[in-house]
UniProtKB/TrEMBL annotation:
InterPro entries: Chemotax_Me-accpt_rcpt, MCPsignal_dom. This is Chemotaxis protein. PANTHER family: METHYL-ACCEPTING CHEMOTAXIS PROTEIN MCPB, METHYL-ACCEPTING CHEMOTAXIS PROTEIN TLPQ. The keyword Transmembrane applies. Keywords: Membrane, Transducer, Transmembrane, Transmembrane helix.
Length: 359
């Protein structure tokens, strides 16, 4: 796990070292009666220098390692979030394209077009059914014609029977007349023959008309039954088509609502991920702060070494001044937040701005 020290922790370390040096100085003042105090001070300063040179690099390495690990992790996280945003963009684009049907028509337009086409099919079926009804009417008219033909054939048969009866009476009268009526008897016989032939023709016509009438009646009955079945099928088809259209309308409405909801949620998620990417920019600020503190800690051995060399050259031993390191640290600040932390401004620290102010 990467280690992270608050800014105040580093100042505490520097203050502790300064306090340690001040304590050593006070001890030297109180122990002035001992033999060769400068040698002991030299030993103390050498030990302090060794302490700083050994501890400071470890601190710096830990800080740099933590900063590096955090930078890599946040960079990887930002990269993944960026990929998610790209995929959300693709999803939104595909969703918008899918929400529109061919030629840019919406689902509602597709439904309207389908409804119109099915309506045309139903209208065509109704037109065909109306044509069959008209044909059935004509067939029924033919049935009336066959009844008239049957009546006419019966009339011909009746005339033939009456003619035959008259011819028979004429033959009887010719026989009574004897030789004088022989010619009339021949005519009467021919009339009788014609009457018989007319009666036979009338019977033949009546038989044919009967067969035709029977066929027409059967055809009319079948056509009537077929028309009734087609009417029922037409009503059933209309009901089925209406039910399918209602279900299709519900489906298209649900799809449109789902697509719109998905689009809204995707936009929301995209915005949240984008906000997360903005928030991840804290890594840049933290990395800069850690770099500045690490560099400032690296100056500590040099400061202590300079203090030791001054004492070795005969100068009075003085405690290291924190202002020197703090001043160098303040020179590296690039953000207002760093200055606020340096001053101990808790309000500015507790409520950092989303935007970074650089100097």
């Amino acid at each position: 796990m990467a280690l992270f020290w608050p800014h105040g922790g580093w100042y505490g370390i520097l203050g502790a070292l300064a306090f340690l040096a001040a304590g050593a100085y006070a001890w030297l003042q109180l122990s002035g009666g001992k033999s060769d105090p400068r040698a002991e001070v030299h030993d103390y300063l050498d030990g302090r220098q060794q302490f700083a040179e050994e501890v400071t690099p470890v601190w710096c390495r830990h800080i740099e390692s933590s900063r590096s690990q955090m930078e890599e992790a946040v960079s990887e996280l930002a990269s993944r979030f960026s990929t998610i945003v790209d995929k959300l963009d693709d999803t939104l684009r595909l969703s918008s394209a899918a929400a529109d049907s061919q030629d840019g028509a919406s689902l509602s337009q597709v439904f309207t077009h389908s409804e119109r086409q099915l309506g045309e099919v139903v209208a065509t079926m109704k037109s065909a059914l109306a044509s069959k009804h008209a044909m059935l009417t004509r067939i029924r008219e033919l049935e009336q014609f066959t009844r008239e033909l049957r009546d006419m054939a019966e009339g011909v048969a009746s005339i033939a029977a009456q003619t035959n009866l008259l011819a028979l009476n004429a033959a009887i009268e010719a026989a009574r007349a004897g030789p004088a009526g022989r010619g009339f008897a021949v005519v009467a016989q021919e009339v009788r023959n014609l009457s018989n032939r007319s009666a036979e023709t009338g019977r033949s016509i009546s038989d044919r008309v009967g067969k035709i009438s029977s066929a027409i009646v059967s055809a009319c009955k079948a056509a009537t039954e077929s028309s009734a079945a087609e009417d029922q099928a037409m009503q059933s088809s209309e009901g089925t088509i209406d039910a399918v259209l209602r279900e299709f309308r519900n489906l298209t409405d649900a799809m449109a609502q789902s697509s719109e909801l998905l689009k809204q949620e995707s936009v929301t998620i995209k915005g949240e991920v984008g906000e997360a990417l903005v928030q991840l920019q804290f890594q840049d600020r933290v990395s800069q702060v850690l770099g500045h503190v690490s560099h400032n800690i690296g100056l500590l051995p040099g400061l202590l070494d300079e203090n030791r060399r001054q004492f070795q050259h005969g100068a009075t031993l003085e405690a290291p001044h924190a202002n020197a390191l703090l001043g160098e640290l303040e020179k590296t600040y690039a953000m207002a937040e760093e200055h606020a932390v340096h001053r101990g401004d808790q309000k500015a620290i507790a409520a950092p701005s989303d935007e970074v102010t650089f100097f």
